[in-house]
TrEMBL record:
Pfam families with a match to the protein in the record: NepR
Protein name: NepR family anti-sigma factor
Source domain of life: Bacteria
Organism: Paracoccus pacificus
Boundaries of every Anti-sigma factor NepR domain copy: 15-48
InterPro entries associated with the record: NepR
């Protein structure tokens, strides 16, 4: 019985970790590309 409680507790912790990681990655995905990177990309395109 104690084993099932531990499994549920571990599963809840893993879900919480998954949700937190998903939030972090989603926040990073919507951030804009910094101007300096856009300038570097433009320079590379001009060299081609």
């Amino acid at each position: 019985m104690n084993n099932k409680r531990e499994e549920r507790k571990r599963a809840a912790i893993e879900r919480q970790i998954d949700e937190n990681l998903r939030r972090v990655y989603e926040q990073d995905a919507v951030q804009e590309v910094p101007d300096r990177f856009l300038a570097l990309l433009e320079q590379l395109r001009e060299q081609e």
